[in-house]
Amino acid sequence: MTDVVRKQVLTKLTHGDYNCEKEFTLAMFSGKYKLVILWELGHVKSMHFNELFRVIDGVTKKVLAGQLKELAADQLILRDAYMENNRELVVYRISDLGQTLLPIIDQMYQWGKQRVQDYQIPASFKLAVENDLPKAP
Amino acid sequence: MTDVVRKQVLTKLTHGDYNCEKEFTLAMFSGKYKLVILWELGHVKSMHFNELFRVIDGVTKKVLAGQLKELAADQLILRDAYMENNRELVVYRISDLGQTLLPIIDQMYQWGKQRVQDYQIPASFKLAVENDLPKAP
DNA sequence: CCGAATCCAAGCGGATACTG
DNA sequence: CAGTATCCGCTTGGATTCGG
């Protein structure tokens, strides 16, 4: 969805349709790990590729590389490469623009936390999940 | 992705992993039209299916029905059916829980608006989009 | 008016292996 | 260390048709 929506939104914008601000924002972190990446990078100066790879649990290098590339293209993060004893090192860090997204992510975090706490999971969901995953047909 | 992520998140929660509040929130309106639906319903008392269908531009009935169903399952919207001269009518309206999501959507709107205004679209994007869409191979 | 049913396309992410 | 290169399958959404 990510890329599709991003393109659609940008097309709209170039045609003067400005009724897609929300979608635009959503598209920014639609991608399975973008939110986590932003979150992680929002809390430290910078991270290496493999640091992110280790900390993000479940992601593959290919996918991680893809997400980073998109985030960089949207200018939410920055990629800096430099040499150190004849080796190229790369760090990723959040951009100023990316910083401005953190309050929203934070609100999402608060909302999710609240919701998880005082509602807990509806029993119907629990059942659905339990019936769904353990037994693979 | 939507449903996949939702299930993953719920599975995590049932297992005591509570490190997915952001993803949980994101999953709530990950779906191409959920945000717009929430937005629309956030501004009026209620809407009929076809009202939404007309106002949402580009959506098909099947997809709309699907998104509404998911939103209702997540209890962000409510579906009320009632009879009127021997015809069943249905209205959708936002739930109290859904209301609590509106501030976030609003922030997304503000962010998107701001970004669209003062950055405009990078020329590279414009070109990419223009080269991409008009000519269908 | 409010969808459900069917069929189909492609996007997005996953697995694995390989590279400078 | 920081990625590419392939291959591949599931999910999501689109087109169209049909029904109560």
From TrEMBL, chains A, B:
This protein's UniProt keywords: DNA-binding, Transcription, Transcription regulation
InterPro entries the UniProt entry points to: HTH_HxlR, WH-like_DNA-bd_sf, WH_DNA-bd_sf
Q: Does the keyword Phosphoprotein apply?
A: no
Domain HTH hxlR-type residue range list: 20-120
Q: Which domain of life is it from?
A: Bacteria
Q: Sorted alphabetically, which Gene3D superfamilies does this protein's record hold? A: Winged helix-like DNA-binding domain superfamily/Winged helix DNA-binding domain
The record's Pfam families line, in alphabetical order, gives: HxlR (PF01638)
Q: Which PROSITE patterns match?
A: HTH_HXLR (PS51118)
Q: DNA-binding: is it a keyword of this entry?
A: yes
- Please give the PANTHER family that the UniProt record associates with this protein: HTH-TYPE TRANSCRIPTIONAL ACTIVATOR HXLR (PTHR33204:SF38), TRANSCRIPTIONAL REGULATOR, MARR FAMILY (PTHR33204)
What this protein is called in its record is Winged helix-turn-helix transcriptional regulator
Its source organism is Lacticaseibacillus yichunensis
Q: What is the lineage of its organism?
A: Bacteria, Bacillati, Bacillota, Bacilli, Lactobacillales
